[in-house]
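Appendix C reproduces, verbatim, an entry submitted by the partner laboratory led by Prof. M.T., so that reviewers can inspect both the input and the predicted structure.
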Amino acid sequence: MNNIPAEKNRRVLLIDDNPSIHEDFRKILSPPNGAAAVMDVLEAALFERPVIPATPTADYEIDSAYQSEEGILLVKKTLEAGRPYAMAFVDIRMPP
């Protein structure tokens, strides 16, 4: 049923009613090109140590839902397509 090997599945679902939470997850999971290198230089300067290049970040496929019902529909849709999510981050305190 699942067409994606487990070690290659980098699909993530974010379910939260706060748009800034979605932005934060995207910054962490999918930083723009060069952002990791800049952070390495800043961290090295802050802690007075040599620059250690970052490990390349994985390419994550991130979907967003802003309500629980929307998230459930996305999960069903991806399961039917044989492309399930590897992980979901879900806010448990959302309005209905």
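The mean pLDDT is 84. Additional entries are available on request from the coordinating office.
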